[in-house]
Structures are given as C-alpha cells and as structure tokens.
Amino acid sequence: MRLKAKKMDIDRNVRSATAAIVREQRVTRTRPALYGALLALLEEKLFEQVTVREITDRAGVGYATFFRRYPDKQALLHDVAAGEIRKLLAMALPILHTVDSRASAQALCAYVWGHRKLWSALLTGGAAATLKEEFIHEAQRLSTESSESWLPGTLRVVFPVSATVEILAWWLKQEKPPTVKRMAEIIDVLVVRPTADMSGKYRVP
Predict the structure, then answer these.
(1) Cβ atoms of 41 and 59 closer than 8 Å
(2) Please, which pLDDT band fits residue 181 given cuts at 50, 70 and 90?
(3) Which of 1, 27, 72, 157 is within CB 3.0–4.6 Å of 143 for a Cys-Cys bond?
(4) Are 134 and 82 in contact (CB under 8 A)?
(5) How does DSSP assign 111-132, residue by residue?
(6) What is the domain partition of the chain in residue ranges?
(7) Single pTM value for the model
C-alpha cells in the first residue's frame, strides 16, 4: 500500500510538473505571437482601427488568453514599444559619437519611415507622453557618463534623445512629410552637431 501511495504521489508530481512546463511553453509562444500580430496589423492600419479580436486571430491565440496577459490592446502596445524603443535607441545613441553623423541619422530616419505606422502609433497616439518618458529612461540606462562633456549629468542624453523624438513625431504627423534625406539633415543640424559641439568644445566658464 505504501509503495502504491508513493507511486501515486510521484505520478501526481510528474503530471503537475508536465502541466507547468506546458503552461510555460504556451506563455513563451504567446507573447511573441501577439507582438508579431500587432506589428503586422500596424503595417496595414492605424492602431485605433485594430481590435483585440484581429490581434488574437492573426496570432493564432485564444481571445480569452489575450486578457490573461494584457488588460487591453494599449498594454500590448506598451510591451511592444519597449522592444522597439531599444532597437531605435541602439541606432540613435551612436549617432552622437560617430564621425559620419549624417549617414547615421539617415539610417535612423529610414528605419522609422519603413515602420511609420508603428511609430505613428507610438509617438503620436494616446500613449505618446508615456512612451517618450520611456525613451528617456531607456536612453539614460544605455548611456555612459563622460567626464569630457560640458553638459551636466544625464542632460547630454536627455536633450538629444528628446529633441530627436519630437522631430520624428512632428515628421510622422505631416500630410506632406519631408523625405528621409531631408529629415536626416534636420536631425543632424538641429540636434547632433550642436550636442557634439557642446560635449566636446565648450566648457563651463
């Protein structure tokens, strides 16, 4: 009897562990599926026009499953935004230190324009203010302090990133937007070069 009871306990533990693994695998698959579905839909329509049902259908995920992970589609957008922000900053921050800042700025603008529906949703939609704060937070986390900078503290990162985000948001709102090349020139002249000058040439009197 004891051996039988022990075997039953082992079987229950195995079933419990197996169920936990299956749940974890589902969670692991669900998030990227929802990410991909939202990104794909944003290439087709505005975020305001996307429904949760469309997202779950595209992702191959149950409608109820969505709400076990997110309260609404805005929460999913925030989650997607965190990853996209890191991608964009990985391109934006090096511009401040590269020799060919114009080419780097053009690569940045080309990336944003190539995913303009997504970035329009992120930068000009209802969550824009929160996402801009996230930009600054992530930029500060990724940046390193420089003793050679004239700008105090994190201002050397906060200013150029904030300015670049505002310029990109303005661009995406225009009915007749300037070209990628023109926007790269604007960012280079208004943001990159002045920041580089202040960081490398000027000192507090």
Answers:
(1) no
(2) very high
(3) 157
(4) yes
(5) HHHHTHHHHHHHHHSTTHHHHH
(6) 2-70, 74-200
(7) 0.66
